[in-house]
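[Solved] Which block belongs to which protein?

Original post:
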Amino acid sequence: MRMSAPENSHELASIKDGTRMELPSRKSFFLRVFIVFLSILLALTGLVGCTGDTAVRIGITPQMSTRLIGYMIKELAGRQGIDCEIVEVPGGIYNLQPALESGSLQIGTELAQSAWNSVLNKRSVYRASNLLELQHYYLKHDLQWNPLPMGRDVYTLAIRKDLAMKENIKTISDLIPLSDSLTLGAPTQYFEDADGYPRLSKTYGMSFGTTKNLPTELLAQNLRDRKADVIPIHTLDGLLQRDELVVLRDDLDSCPGSELGIVIDESALLKHIEFADIIDSLARTVDSQSLVFYNRLVVYNHRTEEEAALQFLKAHNLIVEDPADAGKTREELEEKRTEEARSSSDTQSGSDQKKDESTDSSSQSSKSEFSAS
């Protein structure tokens, strides 16, 4: 049976248990509804504010060859109004990948060879023909693996300059006769991955007198301190250019180069479609030679990672701030930025050298050739 509404909002209404109460006025009713709505809105706002999930989280590992890409993405996204946060991920891809799959990170940068071995658990050396299989695996986890085809890296060995000059060592094969008396320092991962120690043993028949587990970020320092004679090195690292290191050529071509790749969560891409253009622009501009140069600026402490990434983007016309640069080609812009960076690098190096000479001239003659510049 349909009930008719009371003629006056102040009439008394009956309720189930027979008691009687006064109905609220229309004005009071709407006020209460507004208060409830406001309370819900404030609660939801507070919840979002506490979780901090509004920012896109970009994971970067200690691997130098991948770090600048993360800062480039953050800079380009920020200029399109997308809030991004850089998150340091210790332990390399072993910790990066689970965070991407769980959604705690939305973007990361990896090397194809590392992903092939450590994520897909393949024991073979990665080849360009494996890209589709690699991408298919990531799609099953709602992730996209986007290659940067010109950002190619080779994982090889480096030794001290004094050792290379004394023994005339230029290739990995040249190292074989001495390997039994040398110490190899490398991350645990290097001794397990197919492109690491297993590759050396199988291809070159090489074994070292001593092997030592070292964190990636301490490899070069241990080489300088003579706690290791040989270390693995990525050719994209800025360390490639340091005077005290000699990078050995993989003369048997046992490990072909693999490209960098940007991994992005598909939900983040759907929410911020601008990332598609950002990734595409980096795929067209990031090349090995430029990446090594800007990594070197960081290694020599001439630029922070944020500054080096920004300088790269300006040099490649992905960011134009100076009106005078608006009509210049990419080659002209890169030449200008590179010259600026080199000028700054030379100035800083000269300043550092004078400082060293003035503060430690008395012991200059006893310094090792291997001292950090």
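(Second protein starts here: sequence line, then its structure tokens.)
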Amino acid sequence: MAETGQELISVIIPVYNKEAYLKRCLDSVLAQTHADLEVLLVDDGSTDGSCAVCEAYAAQDARVRLIRRENGGASAARNTGIEAAQGAYVGFVDADDWIEPGMYETLLQAIRAGKQGCRVVQLMSRNYTPDGTLVVPPRREDGVCEVLSPETYFRQLIMHTGDSSFCTKLFPGAFIKKYRFAEGKKNEDFELLLRMLPELGDGVLSVGTVGYNISLSEQSATRGTYRQDLYEDMMYNAFTACRIARDHYPEYIEEGRRFRLVQALDFMLHIPVEEMRRDNDFYMRIVRFVRSEKKEIRKNRYLDEKQRQYLKLLADSPRMVRSVHRVSMRLRGIAQ
């Protein structure tokens, strides 16, 4: 077990059937220039060789601790890690991703030099396909540490310009231990950040340095395969965000309304045509919502013209528009 120090960082890594990726992930974490780590591997009932890989690393490095649990999903595994964490700070890494050697040193330096009232520090990420192709570059690489007030950070989230991932962030242990991820839900990072907003103090320290690398092998498959429960949770969070704007950040009400519409558009452009049935209650609720928002669709300043036109068409003829969109995507080689 890692020794508890003033700047011990607990790194929580949920593991479920990630044998093919674990070595790259763990090697990158254990190679951190900030070596005072407690690496918590939470095996969530893996059925492949993941647990054996975890056992081998725990046997080789005293900083690594393996926690076994019955399968309950990534949120439950993260919560188990939070409960076990002993570090002054807590971070998260997904088992199929990897991090740069100086990631946690960079985050700690930002905390030392930054505004002490900020509860969270984050840095930049890159997204890669399985063949190593960079598909999403970092938002910025200027090395500058900027303070995002809670209201600015909220606006970034609902305008899709902010980072809602917990894996790019570092949290004080005492702060993160007050929270738990919603178990059995999708879009859980975004949901928890919404709950954290009132407690962010002076906000989020954001460092323009790349530290986290995302493998799209699993994430892209998640979005490529239609999961209505994912969209249900996304829409729930969108309506929650709009209420937060109304109650706490009224200057961003229009952005909040735009966020609801864009999330609804995302759903409508991904639902299979065969699922667009009158007995699909969630689908019908979204159709009614879009139709009720025709005035907002026309006047909202933050919708781009493509979004506006799609929403207008979907409000009138959802099945026909979705059918045409699916054919268009297939002609472009994009699975729908």
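Accepted answer:
You had them paired correctly. Confirming on the second one: The longest strand covers residues 204-215.
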